[in-house]
Recover the amino acids of this structure.
């Protein structure tokens, strides 16, 4: 089976600044859920930005293959259309643009690029309402401007809604539980779990174990000083909760 | 959102040349002698076979103009204009006021078709049975250089008692009305450009809505400058008599030329008791190239007078064109209980300079006004909002709400807000809100991560920013304006 995502000896830095990713290797097969855990400042969020193509980072060497294609050659929107989705830690607000309009534009942009059939407004509305019900999203939230005045929980639900609607191959969740109370976290986790399938993989970035009680990973990696320093099964997360990251940080240094 | 999709498609379809109205129509024209003098003014007046009082009015304005200084307070820079190096009147050769569209030069009709204003079609559709409400009718007056070439739907408007015709024609057919109202809102002596216009104005639209009449369709004028080195000086006069209502839209384009061209128009609106005038502008004069060469100098005086009780005047403008814009559509709130509104989207890109805003002059009791201004600057442009809100000593209970938002795209443009507020009455309540923001890379990245191209992302964010104002435009024009905004901003990021 060909891997869905393959990162080979990746080195990356902030443009004109500090080196953040430092010789990273990772293979994720279709259907797998990987967790990346590590201390603050280890470069976990940078990894999500580099995978999704955020401006301001430079790849100095290495390679990333996504479904066999050179991911780093793609622009952010091309990556999105190819099926790479980033669930933002801090989703952005877009004043004056209704959530529904945003979803419609995003979905049809991707479909158009893949040569697929575009959804009409009523079709989309039905679909979004159904997904919204699953996530406990107030229909009123669909009319409001994207993320403007949303609570932390609403923003994360909204991210999950986008992910469920866009049906990516790869979901990168950057601190998906930050700002969430336990009930909201369960709802978000349920949404993510509903998306688990044999073709779809997930990369869950977190520094707390608690999210992994709800989104149970197949593989857990410890990320320190810009690369993976240790890999284990789901029980590794519990171990880390007890021992902390200190030993791995020393190892990385 | 379908409209956004339209925008996106429109942006895609646009070629490298962003200004698609830049073509020139090859048509023989007749001009007044170059330069400005009493003789030229007499020539213009004679061409129009004007009454003696009109000629005298023009000559008085000219005398006055000679002694007036050019205004220099606006935040715009341009080389001094040589007013003797311009043509003040140009008309398609052998031009006689057409009785019907069949008499209009087909070349001119084709020009308007290219601009997306099919005059003939509008007229033909009028004769076809169209179910009520399926198609909005719009009566169009088309002004080509200095003369009005066609006005559609004349008969239907006449039946409703509405007068909609070129002002040159109104001078003959309704001289009393013109004489009674012309220059009563923007006096001959108002300012340098308005006075120049008073001396040399060529054509423009005249509208009169009789008491109690709600104008049965949108009225619209399209202005087109075609000739080289020719200024366009149109004059629009709209009167809504007691209890009347009219919605009016103007649009404008010009060919691409290396030299700058002057457009100095005057628009006067008069609303009597309980009357309402809604005036919308989609301004798309040629803005010059990316280095700032060429383009229209748009120096325009627009003012509305709420002369009666509970009168209402509303200005909505979408400004995307012109090399320089100097324009402050204003309301004089004279009648008790009258209200004024100003909704504006001003976009500048390349080297465009915009100094625009409004004046709300509260004179009557319990008058109210509302200003919503959205400025968008991109490229190396400068965009200034300049506004005055004032309450006269006797203007008890005057109220104003102002909201000025500026959006910056890129690092080389400027946004400026210059509000003047004068309250001479202690009961006046004026509120002013202003924000300046920048389209952030993070916001664009967020949109792109969801699959939008960079252009789509900018269009989406900008459309969100201007939404409050677009909602004020008549439906068809809102879509048009939205497209225009995207085209104006094409290539402004990255």
């Amino acid at each position: 089976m060909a891997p869905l995502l393959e990162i080979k000896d990746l080195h990356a830095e902030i443009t004109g600044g500090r080196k953040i990713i430092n010789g990273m290797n990772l293979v994720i097969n279709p259907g797998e859920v990987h967790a990346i855990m590590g201390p603050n400042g280890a470069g976990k969020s940078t990894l999500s930005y580099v995978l999704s193509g955020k401006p301001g980072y430079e790849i100095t060497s290495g390679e990333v293959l996504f479904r066999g294609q050179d991911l780093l050659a793609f622009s952010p929107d091309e990556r999105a259309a190819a099926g790479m989705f980033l669930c933002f830690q801090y989703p952005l607000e877009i004043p004056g643009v209704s959530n529904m309009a945003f979803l419609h534009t995003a979905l049809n942009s991707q479909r158009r690029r893949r040569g697929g059939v575009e959804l009409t407004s009523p079709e989309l509305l039905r679909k979004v309402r159904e997904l919204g019900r699953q996530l406990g999203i107030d229909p009123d939230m669909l009319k409001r401007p994207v993320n403007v005045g949303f609570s932390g929980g609403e923003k994360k639900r909204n991210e999950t809604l986008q992910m469920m609607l866009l049906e990516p191959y790869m979901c990168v969740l950057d601190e998906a539980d930050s700002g969430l109370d336990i009930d909201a976290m369960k709802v978000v986790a349920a949404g993510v779990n509903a998306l688990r399938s044999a073709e779809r993989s997930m990369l869950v970035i977190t520094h707390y174990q608690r999210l992994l009680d709800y989104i149970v990973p197949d593989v857990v990696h410890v990320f320190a000083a810009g690369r993976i320093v240790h890999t284990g099964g789901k029980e590794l997360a519990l171990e880390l909760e007890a021992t902390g990251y200190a030993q791995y940080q020393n190892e990385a240094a | 959102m379908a409209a956004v999709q339209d925008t996106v498609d429109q942006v895609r379809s646009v070629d490298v040349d962003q200004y698609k109205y830049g073509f020139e129509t090859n048509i023989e024209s007749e001009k007044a002698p170059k330069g400005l003098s009493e003789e030229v003014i007499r020539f213009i007046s004679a061409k129009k076979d004007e009454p003696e009082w009109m000629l005298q009015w023009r000559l008085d304005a000219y005398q006055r103009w000679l002694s007036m200084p050019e205004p220099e307070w606006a935040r715009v820079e341009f080389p001094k204009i040589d007013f003797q190096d311009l043509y003040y009147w140009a008309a398609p050769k052998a031009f006689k006021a057409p009785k019907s569209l069949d008499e209009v030069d087909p070349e001119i009709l084709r020009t308007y078709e290219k601009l997306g204003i099919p005059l003939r079609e509008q007229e033909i559709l009028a004769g076809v049975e169209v179910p009520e409400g399926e198609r909005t009718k719009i009566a169009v007056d088309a002004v080509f250089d200095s003369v009005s070439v066609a006005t559609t739907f004349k008969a239907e408007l006449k039946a409703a008692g509405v007068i909609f015709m070129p002002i040159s024609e109104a001078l003959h057919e309704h001289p009393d009305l013109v004489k009674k109202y012309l220059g009563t809102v923007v006096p001959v002596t108002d300012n340098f450009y308005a006075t120049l216009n008073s001396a040399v104005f060529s054509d423009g639209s005249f509208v009169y809505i009789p008491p109690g009449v709600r104008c049965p369709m949108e009225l619209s004028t399209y202005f087109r400058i075609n000739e080289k080195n020719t200024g366009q000086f149109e004059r629009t006069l709209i009167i809504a008599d007691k209890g009347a209502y009219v919605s009016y839209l103007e649009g404008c384009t010009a060919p691409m030329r290396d030299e700058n061209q002057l457009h100095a128009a005057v628009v006067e609106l008069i609303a009597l008791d309980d009357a309402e005038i809604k005036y919308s502008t989609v301004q798309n004069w040629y803005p010059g190239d990316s280095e700032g060469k060429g383009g229209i100098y748009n120096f325009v005086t627009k003012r509305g007078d709420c002369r009666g009780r509970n009168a209402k005047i509303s200005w909505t403008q979408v400004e995307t064109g012109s090399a320089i814009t100097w324009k402050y559509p204003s309301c004089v709130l004279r009648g008790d209980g009258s209200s004024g509104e100003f909704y504006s989207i001003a976009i500048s890109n390349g080297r465009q300079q915009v100094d625009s805003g409004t004046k709300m002059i509260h004179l009557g009791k319990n008058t109210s006004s509302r200003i919503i201004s959205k400025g968008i600057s991109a490229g190396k442009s400068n965009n200034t909002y300049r506004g005055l809100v004032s309450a006269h000593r006797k203007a008890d209970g005057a109220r104003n709400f102002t909201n000025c938002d500026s959006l910056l795209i890129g690092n080389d443009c400027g946004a400026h807000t210059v509000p003047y507020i004068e309250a001479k009455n202690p009961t006046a309540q004026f509120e002013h809100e202003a924000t300046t923001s920048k389209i952030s890379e993070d916001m664009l990245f967020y949109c792109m991560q969801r699959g939008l191209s960079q252009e789509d992302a900018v269009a989406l964010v900008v459309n969100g920013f201007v939404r409050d104002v677009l909602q004020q435009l008549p439906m068809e024009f809102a879509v048009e304006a939205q497209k225009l905004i995207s085209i104006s901003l094409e290539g402004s990021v990255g």
